[in-house]
Design goal:
The complex is a heterodimer. Helix content of chain A is 75%, strand content 1%. By secondary structure, chain A is mainly alpha-helical. Chain A has one domain. Chain B is flat, with a radius of gyration of 25 Å. The chains are: A mainly alpha, B mainly alpha.
Amino acid sequence: MDTLLALLTVFTQPQLFLLVGLGTFLGVYIGAIPGLSVTMAVSILISFTFSWDVYPAISLMVGIYMGGVYGGSRTAILLNIPGAPSAIATAMDGYPMAQRGEAGEAIGVTTVMSFFGGLVGIAVLALAAPFVAEFALTFQPRDYMLLAVLGILLVGSLSAGSLLKGIFAGALGIAIGAVGRDPLTFAERFTFDFQIMEGGISFIAVMIGMFGISEALLQLHHVGADAMRQKIDRIIPSWSTVRKYLPLSLQTSSIGVIIGALPGTGGDIAALMAYDHAKRVTKKPTRPFGTGAMEGLVAPETANNAAVGGAFVPMMTLGIPGDAVTAIMIGALFIHGLNPGPMLMVDQPQMFWFIVGALLTANVFILICGLTGIKLFTKIVEMPRAVLIPLIMLLSVVGAYAVNNSVTDVYWMLGFGVFGYFMRHYGYPLGPVILGVILSRLLDDNWRRAIISEREDLGAFFAGILTSPLSLTLLLVCIVILLSQTPLFTLLKSRVSKETGDQL
Amino acid sequence: MKIDYRGDADHHDGTSDATPGGYEAERRPGELAFALFLLAASLYLLWEAYGIAGFEALSSAGAVPMATTAAMAVSALFVVLRTARLPKVSTESLTRDILPFKVILFGGLLVCFGLLLVPLGFLPTAALFLVLAIKYLSGRGWGFTLAVSLGSLLLIWVVFRIVFTVLMPAGIVPEAELLQFIRNIGTEWGAQ
């Protein structure tokens, strides 16, 4: 009974209900603006809500978090600029849909599927939190390293172009992620003796440059072309459309929850893995992936919102943040005299259930905020390119500057923008670069932890992998993915399908 | 316009990241030079990575950078070899299809934007950039150009500076005093 009361606190207190709604609304728009991250917004909020009661403070933060993860998809679809890293995969098919004039439909489906993914994540948080957290706890450093390798190997399947160019792009991303002082030994890596490079390169600057500036430069080729009018009459998707994609969204929600529950990973990796999963399991997509396939939208959007519920699992049950935002929220709970971790569930279960209730409310508000105001939002892409291109460039500059209030980030963003422009012209995929930057730290730290724990013995390291079912499974998945990208596999596959076809 | 229009009729400019540009069996103008540049950069980075800790230990700070730059160098080498064998695209030229004047101009404008951002300040630099860019691209009259440029800039400034309190470089504009002046007007208005 007490549990139910705690769960319903948000609904019974109008002030908390409105705060969740306001947070979600702000989150959607903050998430949609490249450079304004949810992490930044939540960290700023802590200073505002310092003197508040814990419940209103958490209500606002939960709303911003949930809304922000969803909001990133809007600019990804409309402008090919992911508002947040978790929307990178969404841009791959969402933007081609907008270019066909189907932005309304894309946003509608995205909203409903984000809602569905969010529901699954919250359900898992409420029902299976202890079990999922226990599973994540069994991961050894080598497993995290293999998980990072797995993510990097996805480059081949994430990019339709050459595998070699995909590998180059992924490796480049890891190298970019390594720039700066090594956190373990403080050694300088790729700094070229420049002091400004010691702090590393801002991931947001790389992302805005590669996706925003390169896109604007590409659009200069077509400045005279008519703006594509967006169909905005079918915002709310039909039940048959929703039902059609439910099985896929259920699968990708599961991916989202599991990846979200793994500390250090988040909605961005969950979305990319879900996208890859959709590419593998969908035999007949609505269109080829990368050209506006609905499955390419459904998968990442359900996964990144499901990852929110997943990220709360280790945060609430173990006190380990699932991602950057939950790390800040742990800080917020500490400020309010609460101790996130196993004892929170024992001492203050009402707080756990209150957060579940707040997440549930924020998820409902996503539907409301997401399915309204689209007409105004889609007008952005109907603007003449002569106006839109300079505005994208200006927003990119402002967004890159806003991350650290640093002009250096603007220069990085411009440099990566020009570099990305050439990469796109010559068939090098950009997604793997971003994926590499995200996974760089995870790979580096856990490789070193794993090899140090084996006393630098490579043989013992591999023996450890082969004797652990979890590590072995991850390794086998890596090998299968690698082999599946080779021409030999493609040849074998086509022969098998031909023989099967002949037999039929 | 064709229904499958995606910014380029041949889809070879990488309009979506999932369908990178280029051609499967042909080489675009400048593609080999770009591949050679990437190979040279990868080799240089490999050398830099070796300089971090050499072959000191598997857990050294340079281990992962060396492995990744080696992967970059090897893949870049294969890309160069493959690209060099491909025939050139006969219908494209570097100055028309890859680096037209517009792209070079905007590259230069963006660099100027970055250079002037701190000394001149965000508002004048952004206004200058928007006016020049919109005037050049739209070819419309000064009235349209100024109205659209300054109107959008005002909106962006209000959203970033006032709503999200993002501090952009003030430069020659007394932004803080201006904001205080606006706040004072608001306070006086409220007091009445």
